[in-house]
C-alpha cells in the first residue's frame, strides 16, 4: 500500500500500490517528468492538487495554488514556454473557466497537460458530458488530443502518454478523467524509472540571432522550442503570427499558421490514436466506448455471449482525434455498432459519422449520474440483434 507519510520519496514510486485514481494520475505525471503544477480547488479533483503539493517539493518541482482556474492555466502556459513540464487538474465547472487560457496554449504551441475530472453540473456524480467541450471548447482553429483512461492503472499510464504527446507535438493534451475513476482505489503497478519511455521537446540548436524563426516548421510539423527568457526574441501571441512570431493579419499567413497547427495533429493520427479490442475476432455486434464505460461494456459483451450473441468491444484510448481507421474497420466487420457513453449521446454522433452507413448503429446513452449497468447495455444489444 502506498505510504503517503514518507518524508522523502523519489520521482517514480516503483512497485505495486493500492492507489486512489487521483493519486495515480499525479504519480504518472511525476514519472513523466512533471515539475510544475498550478491549480485551483474543485471536487472531485482536489486529491490531485493535494498529492502534487506534497510530491513536487520532494523532487525539486514547483506547486502553485492559483487564485482561480484562469490564473492556473496561464501559469501553466508561462512555465511551459520557459521549459517546465506543466500540468493542472480541474473538474467540469472549472474546465469551463480554463478555455481562454487553453486556447492561448494551442495558439502559441505550449505543451501542457490538463486533467479534467468530469462530474455532473454542481454535483460529484459520474458523467462523460464534457467530451465535446474537450474538443471544441476553446476559440480558434486547433486539433485536440484527448486520452480516455478506464482504470486507475490507466490514469497512471495515460498521464505519461499525455506528457509525451504534449512534448512531441507542442500541444495541450487533455486526460479525460471521471468521478468514477478519480475516487476509485485499485491495484496499480508502477514500473522502474528506466522502463518508462520519456519524450522531451526538441530544443533549437542555433544560437539567438535576428535570423532565428521560432515558428518555422514543415507544413504539418512542430517547431523546435526556444526557451522563454534564454535570449531568444520570441513573441508568444494569441493573434495570427508569422514564422518570426510577429502579429501578421495577412490572410495567407493566417491560413498557413492554422493549417500547420491543425495538420501536425491531424496528419499524425496513426501515431497519436490508439484503441483496444475485446472479443472482436468473431463479433457480429460491436460496442464502441471509452473511459469508465468500457468496464460495463465488457461485462455486457460477456453476458451477451452467454446468450449466444457474438458481441465485441472497441475501447477508444483516444477520443480526439477520432480513431477513424479503427472504427471504420470494425464497421466493415460487424452487422451493428452500439455507442456506449455516459451522456445524452454526444460522441455517438462522431461514431455514426465515421461508420457512414457501413453497418447499423444504435446508442446506449444516459445522463443519470451513474455508469451503465451491464444489463442496461445488454438490453440495447438485444434490440440491435432483432
What attributes does this structure have?
5-stranded mixed sheet; 7-stranded mixed sheet; Rossmann fold; disordered N terminus; 37% helix; 2 domains; 386 residues; alpha/beta
Explain the overall architecture.
Helix 1 packs across helix 2, helix 1 (21-32) runs parallel beside helix 7 and helix 11 crosses helix 14 (374-385). This protein has two domains: 15-195, Rossmann fold (3-Layer(aba) Sandwich), CATH 3.40.50; 274-385, Rossmann fold. It is α/β, with parallel strands linked by helices and 386 residues long. The protein is globular, with a radius of gyration of 21 Å. The strands form three sheets. It has a seven-stranded mixed β-sheet, sandwiched between helices. Strands 9-11-10-13-14 form a five-stranded mixed β-sheet, with helices on both faces. A two-stranded antiparallel sheet has the order 1-8. It has 14 helices and 14 strands. The longest helix is centred in the middle third of the chain and has 18 residues, at 152-169.
Write the layout of secondary structure elements.
Layout: E1 15-20, H1 21-32, E2 36-39, H2 46-55, E3 62-65, H3 69-82, E4 86-91, H4 92-97, H5 99-108, E5 112-118, H6 131-136, E6 145-147, H7 152-169, E7 173-178, H8 179-182, E8 185-190, H9 251-266, H10 269-272, E9 275-278, E10 285-289, H11 294-306, E11 311-316, E12 318-320, H12 324-331, E13 336-341, H13 347-355, E14 360-365, H14 374-385
Parallel strand pairs: 2-3, 2-4, 4-5, 5-7, 6-7, 10-11, 10-13, 13-14
Antiparallel strand pairs: 1-8, 6-12, 9-11
Helix pairs in contact: 1-2, 1-7, 3-5, 11-14
Amino acid at each position: 500500500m502506498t505510504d503517503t507519510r514518507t518524508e522523502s520519496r523519489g520521482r517514480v514510486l516503483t512497485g505495486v500500490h493500492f492507489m486512489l485514481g487521483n493519486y495515480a494520475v499525479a504519480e504518472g505525471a511525476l514519472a513523466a517528468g512533471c515539475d510544475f503544477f498550478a491549480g485551483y480547488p474543485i471536487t472531485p479533483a482536489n486529491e490531485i492538487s493535494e498529492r502534487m503539493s506534497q510530491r513536487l517539493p520532494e523532487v525539486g518541482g514547483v506547486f502553485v495554488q492559483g487564485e482561480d482556474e484562469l490564473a492556473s492555466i496561464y501559469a501553466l502556459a508561462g512555465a511551459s514556454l520557459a521549459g517546465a513540464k506543466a500540468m493542472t487538474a480541474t473538474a467540469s465547472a472549472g474546465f469551463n473557466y480554463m478555455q481562454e487560457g487553453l486556447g492561448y496554449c494551442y495558439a502559441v504551441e505550449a505543451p501542457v497537460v490538463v486533467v479534467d475530472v468530469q462530474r455532473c453540473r454542481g454535483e460529484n456524480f459520474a458523467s462523460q458530458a464534457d467530451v465535446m467541450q474537450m474538443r471544441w471548447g476553446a476559440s480558434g482553429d486547433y486539433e485536440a488530443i484527448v486520452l480516455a483512461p478506464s482504470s486507475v492503472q490507466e490514469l497512471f499510464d495515460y498521464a505519461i502518454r499525455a506528457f509525451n504527446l504534449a512534448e512531441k507535438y507542442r500541444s495541450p493534451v487533455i486526460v479525460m478523467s471521471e468521478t468514477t475513476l478519480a475516487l476509485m482505489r485499485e491495484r496499480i503497478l508502477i514500473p522502474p524509472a528506466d522502463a518508462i519511455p520519456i519524450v522531451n521537446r526538441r530544443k533549437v540548436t542555433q544560437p539567438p540571432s535576428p535570423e532565428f524563426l521560432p515558428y518555422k516548421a514543415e507544413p504539418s510539423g512542430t517547431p523546435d522550442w526556444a526557451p522563454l527568457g534564454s535570449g531568444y526574441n520570441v513573441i508568444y501571441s494569441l493573434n495570427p503570427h508569422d514564422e518570426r512570431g510577429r502579429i501578421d493579419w495577412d490572410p495567407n499567413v493566417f491560413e498557413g499558421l492554422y493549417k500547420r497547427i491543425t495538420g501536425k495533429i491531424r496528419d499524425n493520427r496513426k501515431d497519436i490514436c490508439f484503441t483496444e479490442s475485446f472479443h472482436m475476432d468473431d463479433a457480429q455486434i460491436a460496442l464502441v466506448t471509452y473511459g469508465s464505460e468500457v468496464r460495463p461494456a465488457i461485462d455486457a459483451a460477456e453476458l451477451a455471449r452467454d446468450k449466444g450473441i457474438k458481441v465485441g468491444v472497441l475501447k477508444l484510448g483516444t477520443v480526439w482525434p477520432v480513431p477513424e481507421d479503427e472504427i471504420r474497420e470494425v464497421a466493415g466487420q460487424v452487422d451493428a455498432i452500439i455507442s456506449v457513453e455516459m451522456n445524452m449521446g454526444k460522441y455517438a454522433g462522431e461514431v455514426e459519422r465515421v461508420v457512414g452507413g457501413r453497418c447499423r448503429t444504435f446508442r446506449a446513452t444516459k445522463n443519470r449520474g451513474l455508469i451503465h449497468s451491464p444489463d442496461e447495455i445488454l438490453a440495447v444489444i438485444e434490440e440491435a440483434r432483432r
